[in-house]
Amino acid sequence: MTEAWDTAKPWISKSAGMIEGSLHPRVLDYTDSFIDEVIPNESELTAGVTIEPGKSYGFFTDTTLCIGCKACEVACKEWNQLPAEEQGMSGMSYDNTRGLSSSTWRHVTFVEKVDREHTDDMQPFQSNWLMMSDVCKHCANAPCLEACPTGALFRTEFDTVVVQQDICNGCGYCVPACPFGVVDLDMSDGKAHKCTLCYDRLKGGLEPACAKSCPTDSIQFGEWDDLYERAQERVEDLHERGATNAYLYGTPGAPGATGGLERLQAFFLLSDRPEVYGLPAAPTRPSRRVAPALGTGLATAASLALAAIFLFSGKRR
Amino acid sequence: MSQWDLVNSDVILVMGSNMAENHPIAFRFVVEAKQRGATIIHVDPRFTRTSALADIYAPIRSGTDIAFLGGIVRYLLENDLWFREYALPYTNLSTIIEDGFQAPEEFDGLFSGWDEEKHSYKMDSWQYEGMVVPTANADHSVEVSDPEKKHEMTKRPPRRDETLQDPNCVYQIMRRRFAAYTPEMVERVTGCPKESFVKIAEAMAKNSGRERTGAVCYALGWTHHTTGSQMIRAATIMQGLLGNMGRPGGGVLALRGHCSIQGSTDIPTLYEMLPTYLAQPKAAKHPTLETYLEEETVPTGWWTNLPKYMVSLLKAWYGEHATKENEFGYQWLPKIVGDHSQFPMTFAMTDGFMRGMFVIGQNTVVGGMNAKLVQKGLAGLDWLVVRDSHEVETATFWKKGTLISEGEMKPEDIATEIFLMPASLPGEKAGTFTNTQRLVQWHDKVVDGPGDSRSDLSFVFHLARRLKELYAESTEKRDEPIRKLTLDYPVIGPLEDPDSEAVLQEINGYTTADRKLVSGFKALKDDGSTACGGWAYSGLFPEEGKNLTRSRKADGPDGNGAHHGWAFAWPSNRRTLYNRASADPEGKPWSERKKMIWWDEAEGKWTGLDIPDYVEDKAPGYRPDWSKEQTGMDAISGSDPFIMMPDGRMALFTPAGLKDGPLPAHYEPVETPAKNAFYKAQSNPAAKRFHRKGNALHEVADKQYPYALTTYRLTEHHTAGAPTRGVPTTAELQPESFAEIPPELAEKLGVRTLDWVVLSTKRGEVETRAMVTERLRPLTIDGSTVYEIGMPWHFGWAGYATGDIANILTSIVADPNVSMHEAKALTCNLRKGRLRRHHEGVEA
Amino acid sequence: MTINRRTPGKRIASFVRDWSLPRQLAGEPSKSTAAKSTTSEKLQPRLKLADKVGTSICPYCAVGCAQLIYARNGKVIHVEGDPRSPVNGGRLCPKGAATMGLLNNPERLTTVKYRRPHATDWEEVPLDWAMERIARLTKQTRDETFVEKLADGTVVNHTLGIGVLGGATLDNEENYLMKKVFGGGLGVVAIENQARP
Predict the structure, then answer these.
(1) Is the ipTM of this complex over 0.90?
(2) Among all residues of chain C, which has the CA nearest to that of A167?
(3) What's the pTM value of the predicted model, to 2 decimals?
(4) Does the distance separating the beta carbons of B453 and C108 come in below 8 Å?
């Protein structure tokens, strides 16, 4: 039964038939309208992935499938209880949240480049109006983590990078360290915030909120190696279909994984230059401006952290 | 068709719809079809998020879709690209029409039968030769001199010419009808380059036949026109010719906008219908139950069963009081005397004719056409009850509305007594929604609504209970209906919520003697022994404890993918209507790749991957014995798939059911920058027009209102916007109203993105932000440049995401068939700047 | 938002507990397990706290996506896509993904607001009072506008004095009862919903 289950595209089974089966076999284990509890290992049903500590997870965001609906932005904010902002219309196409920030952890960029003369022969999947859901890259060699003097930023058992709010003292070293401008200090609590790749959800066997919500599976969650394999196949497939400009961003040896970053746990498939989407073409790790690991700077870090606990812990968070 | 069946399509034409934006989850099936190799086409005035994922995008001027689709029909017929093996036996292409029929090209842009005085058509010349083709549902009944001629259909089949040579056969009529719709004309009228048009026509043709199918997805972009019904007809004709109905990956999918808008059409809160497509009695036509049943019953095909459904409905409503002697309470039903739809209601309010109103989950001040007139209407009411979850514009027009901000009225001037009542939302009440593919899906009650929130079921139930008490002592005949009405639903809990499952059971139907639930509509009788609130839904609750709408057993990988165990699709849990057409006339699948149901000779019945939408044991070889009278399904041969039609065939030419012609013809929108290049008749002659103060219309190519305007929705907001504009996480995504303007026009007017602009029509003015974008382009129409502007209509003054109401601009005009307005195609003026009221500091 | 009211003593205790140095000295990697805080250790998705999980259908468009509503102590704690539905397979669009925001919106109405004729503001009234007042107004308007026969004797048995709008966002059962009560019971013919506009 599971052989017929294509983890790459959860709605498809490879079984023959007129209308092919579209759901995971385990859906048949839960056929009541009221269920007792959250479905165990729900990510198996939604992403074909069994989440286990010690494995390496990430996002593959395939922009050619993105319809710019922003379900990822909303699902993220609703899950993580992040505030919305009243900023008015930006004038930048349909983007009004403007970028990743301490309260926006998924952000959809819109780039209009309509070639009016040739819209009756467009390349397959997304073209002419580029839309990309950006997110923290969870770098393999994460500069933010290197820069963090307190150990607030750490690498989880899922190989993702998380700011622990109970540790963070708001020193802000991580902010300039990030080559993608992702990490941001929040004015309300002075601490650093960014995508956690839904650390709590992963612990509960749930697919991250953005990926689960994504209508067209432009955002795919899974084990990094699987995602990478899938992404390479996708690029090949797109090339065969005539979308020869498709390439990966953030995989080993590709743009975005430059300057010692090695690879991005959250990587992308793009069809135009990285800068068009607001991504750096060749990000680099900053030099070890702050190296607070065991040994150098340890004492400084400890005292900084202790001070911060008193400074900020009484504030709203 | 099921939404998920789109993955089986080889070509998908999205037209009159911005599917990726307004139905993102349905669009995932389009993306999946693309993965499997399908060609995706989007035809729209604006390049949208749907266009971005398409293979072919073609621009089109709003309201010219019939010119475009008529062009495809012509292309298929003239190049002989239609699916002959399907269309010849399954449609009425070969049927002979009355000799006197004339089409617009021969007749000043009108079809034959036009009555200038009555502003409507007499349909004698549209009929099949020698017989009248009836249709159920009075509002669409066939207007002919001798309606009795419908019984001719029980005596013989319509005359046909399978060689298609007879000049009066539908095929020849259609060839003449669409001869003028050449690619050159398509370009001249729609603005779509003819090369793009031909590519699309070819893509549709290429993906037709035994091995291939194509689907059409449409939405309000087709319905919001004075020619909307005919736009959809044009697409259906194309699909009939291509053999795309009743087959996997084939069909015409209407993408509807509200969670139960399909349900509220089936079980209608609509003036002209009773539950599941029975006509609301008309005073002039249906004085008695007998006349109603005689008028409404179609002698051949499935609708012959109508009396069973009508009598069962009356039994459900009036219970033991409905007896054979009193026409089962038929006289208690109110009779309609004209158009009582929302637009006449607006006028009835402004005239003081309508005095009280319930607005239950609708924000008509934002969503209603000519929104200022709507507010004037509400201000003229004695009382108004608004039930909603939020403080919507409809409830606050008297203090924050357009009349107030423009200084026409003060709150003190408005005498309306207003109640704004908190309503529970799904999750806070249990019941069913019917989705866009006819799936009736149950939603559980998980929590109570906040504070005094109640379900609307509870509201109506308790209001009815109080009214029954108030009328309890009355002996007046006029008060009988409320006194006799059944209302014996059990209540639950301290709030005495009526049990929605009990209501659903009444909709399903039961035997009146022992109140046993019926298994489906085949069990219904016309003698009063059964009660049923909605015959087409019957079977969704076939026995006690078996609520099929609550069934959560979707197919896993081993299922056939029709998901019969997930909810209930009316009728009879059939997932694809008219699926008899998925097999050839002999009952064999057209191909292995496109099989759905087929005739099992050994078992003597239809079988396959869906529940047959057919008489289960009617053999493909069955032919009616015309030596004697044939009625009902006996009159339908085993190779005729379209069982709801009186001749069992798809009506490419429609003798009955439409008020503005048996075939589509391109008419311009009522307000348009262009003259009709096809005919002398400029706009739909049968369109409903209301010559009323405050509802003035623009001239054709009006120099004061030179731009084409279309209104639309965004993925981030929901229709009249109240819920999403009030929720921060959605409000921030599209925080302000705006208008999309092509750069060429913006440059002419000196407008840049984020500038304030004013849009105006004779109905009113609105100010909004400019969004200058290449996604809109100037179109060359008949040699002149036409600029089209777009404006989302979600916004109002409530919530976090605000803006002027786009419907201030729109007018009240309507399609003659369904009273649908024309907010997708009108004209306007545009200037840089703001409205004075804001400078004066009046809060809007 | 929660307010952190820990005492200095507790803060120090927590710091000592979460300080990674001892774990690093014990050989754990400094940037991962050694750095893990107590909160991180104990973290779980709030869905696990639900005491009731029911299936709902998205209140927005007609696609009909199924949702799972997670509640605790009678309050919704989250709404997300139901992975079992063949329509959405767990997915939701931006509107559907904000369903919890809709249900828990502090802007929701909780009481009946009443506006007297010519008044310039709302007042709050009890639900029961409003129901009775509405019932009486309905009866009064119906009685004043009910027509049994037209001038030519045609029986109509209707009132054109009352209108009912709405239904496309409501349950089938609600639409059914509205048509039955207002139409079949009171003789209202002007019953309409968003299917047209």
Answers:
(1) yes
(2) C37
(3) 0.95
(4) yes
